[in-house]
Amino acid sequence: MKMKHNKKRNTAFIFEALVRELTKAVVEGDVSKKKKIVNLIRNNFKGNNLLSKDLRLYKSIMELKDADKELAERVIFEARMERSSIDNKKLFEEQSEIINKINKEISPDVFSNFVPNYKDLATISQIFNSRMKARDRILLEREMVGKMMSLEESKDSSLKPIDNLTYKTFVKKFNEKYNQELANEQKELLKRYITSFEDDGIELKVFLNEEISRLKEILSDSLKLEEIKSDEVMLENTKKVYDMLVNANKRDIDKVLVQDILKIQNLAREINE
Prior knowledge:
Largest sheet: none
Number of domains: 2
Distance between the termini: 63 Å
Oligomer: single chain
Order of helices and strands: HHHHHHHHHHHHH
Structural class: mainly alpha
C-alpha cells in the first residue's frame, strides 16, 4: 500500500511547478515574477547541492523511454542506491528553504499548479522512500519499469542538446533550403536550444514563450490584411499556422518544434516587410 505523498517534499514536483508558474508569468507579461522565478530556479537547482542532485535522480528515471526491462530495472536500482546516500536532513532543509522562498517571493498557489506527470513523480518519491515496505516498493518499481519501456515518447524528445557540428549542419541546410541567412531571432532560438542542457531548458522555455506570443500577435494582425483576407488559400494557411502556435505549448521542445518555429519566424518576417 502506498504511503501518503507530500508533494512539497518532492523535489521534482517543486521544479515542475516553478516551471509552469514561469510559463504563466511570461504569458501574462509579469516581468518581475518571471525574474524572481528564474533566479529561484538558478540559485536552488545548481551545481552539486542536494536539490539539484535529487532532481537529476528523478530525471534519470522519468526521461528514460523505450528501454529494455534490464536497463530500466538497473536505472531504478542505481538511482535508488544513490538516493539513499543523500543526507535526508540536509535535503529537507534545502526543500524547506525553497518552499519558504516560493511562499514569500512568489505565491503558495505555485504548489497548486497542474503538473501532468505528477503521478509518476509521486511514484518515484515512494520508491526513494527508505521506509517503504519491500513488497510495495517492488510493485511500484514494476509499474515504473513498464512506463520506462513504453514507446509513447521518443528518446530524442525533451530538450536534448545538439553539438556544434549538428548546429553548423542544421544552419547550413536551413540556409540552403530557404536561400537566406538566419535572422537574429532565429539565431537566438538556436543558441538557446543548443545550450538548453545547462539549465534544464529554463532559458529556452522562457524565450519560446515570449517568441511564440510575439509570433501569434503578428499572425493575428496579418489576418486583418486585405491581401490575406481576399485570398482564401492564404487565409486558410495563415489560420493553420496560427493554430500551430496556439498548440505549441502542448508539444515537446525538440528539434521538430524548433524547426517549425524557425519557419514561422521566416513567415513573420515576410509579413512585416
